[in-house]
UniProtKB/TrEMBL annotation:
This is Serine/threonine protein phosphatase. Coiled coil: none annotated. Gene3D superfamilies: 3.60.21.10. Residues 50-231 form the Calcineurin-like phosphoesterase domain.
Amino acid sequence: MVRSNSGLSHRSRREKYLSERGAIQIHARLAPARNSPDNCAMDADTLTYAVGDIHGCADLLDALLDKIEAHAAGRPRRLVFLGDYIDRGADSARVIETLRRLQWRDEGGVTCLMGNHEAMLLKTLHERGALDLWLRNGGCDTLHSFDVDGPEYLPGDVLDWIEALPTLHQDTQRWYVHAGFRPEAEVPDPDEDARLWIREPFLSEERDYGRHVVHGHTPLSRGQPDVRAFRTNLDTGAVYGGALTAAVFGLSAAKAVDFLQVRAR
């Protein structure tokens, strides 16, 4: 049953939530550019699997993880998830549960980046007017999956986990980011809005960022990854009937050596 709002307006409930948890904490975590620890010291045979936008497609995630384990076949491996775990799909709660379980089992081997949908959710907790935008972009599906009627009722440990997500990860060959970088910016782009939201001119401008950029955010209608000279887009539209994709990377080359997919239909 969806939790009752007990007669409080969203504004009143949001202000009560911020008072209890501390708005300063939320603003402090949103302000700085958050980078995950570098993964530059890896065994030569380590494989990195980067996974595109999941958007609540928990069954596809489970199936893709099975494919990853079979492909790795006992070799050392790392997992990098590119953000947008929630919204639009039916089971955001189970997606987050799965990712957190993976991190608990292998803390140093699993990196989860923030996407713009996680950022939109956080924004509803400290900015007036942000709720409608999030709900229009799939937030209702996330609330339903957690069986609550407002973002302030989401489990505190889930919100803490989302708030702590970095927006950038790197290894010796690649940058991993949800959306991309501003082509004119320093590398890596310190602007978190760009990391979470950019499409153009990042998608159309061919720039060498020093390392290959692995990203999602912009869904590809044909359900196949888009591999360019300096970037690879892994958002293959899982929630839109496309596929959930993992790119397989080694240490000897910047581009993927293979792709694993689970089709949505």
